[in-house]
Amino acid sequence: MHETVKINTVSELHEFLGYPYKPTHPLITLIDFSEINLNGIKSGTRKVFGFYSVVLKKITGAGVIYGRKVYDFSEAALLCMAPEQLSVVTAIEKEAFTEGWGLYFHPDLIRSSALNKSINSYTFFSYNTDEALHLSEKEKSILHLLTQSLKAESSDKLDNYSTDIIVSNIEVILNHCKRFYGRQFITRQIHNKGIASRFEALLTDYFESGKLRLQGLPSVKYCADQLHLSPNYLGDLLKQESGKSAKDHIHFFLIEKAKNLLLNSSSSITEIAYDLGFGQRQSFSKLFKQKTGMSPSEYKNPE
User: Fold this and answer.
1) What is the tens place of the pLDDT at every residue in 159-204?
2) pTM
3) Architecture field, domain 190-300
4) How far is CA 58 from CA 75, 89, 154, 248, 263, in A?
5) What architecture does CATH give domain 4-187?
6) Angstrom distance (rounded) from CA 202 to CA 182
């Protein structure tokens, strides 16, 4: 069993990565990967950072790290991770850490800011590593300018405005990442339509196989696992493709099946609710009315 290393402070992070400079700020750092030394880290080491991470790596010759079959650009990939996520150091990853940069900021930095309330809206922090953002040269240049501005601000002597300005710069960087992911979803429409079709087929099979009665309504996580995606990536992809969330798609399938059963079977509403994976009729009736504007009884027996 490989050891698990927990890194909680910026100083510990610099030491772990073999970065030769002392931190200029206790809660944020921007590390140039061309200046780190990973020779002291064994491949297979499990690491958990207590930081938000926005990491730009070169992928030329090392794209296997991300496992993608389709690339928009081959120059660089951006991977974002939230605190307490486990990752493993691989030999290929160590090779890729020769160019690029890593922005790391502690949750305490944004704790009292508006960004703390909206940080969960940046769903890419929970994407899988093979769902990394692949950047064009223009996008790389934009992020380079933004990160250098952030580095300059966090390296200066702190004053009463420093934290607000630093956090604002972070938010601008995250908003650009959100924009670039939106571009990636668009440029991969053919690839994404294939995923969307597989998702629809998965739901059709689930609903027609009798699993509803045995296992209940499929969760977004269940569907994402079956498609080898992270739940957030699947949800964002479907939102881009159809305007509906993954949960909305699941509910649509459920309501359509419920309508057919209500109109074309002799089963009671309680029996239908049970067949659709609901332990109680009330839960089924509440969702049905929420989605259709009428109760199952009103739909089954219109006046």
Assistant:
1) 889 999 999 999 999 999 999 998 888 777 777 678 888 898 999 9
2) 0.74
3) Orthogonal Bundle (1.10)
4) 6, 16, 25, 37, 57
5) Sandwich (2.60)
6) 25
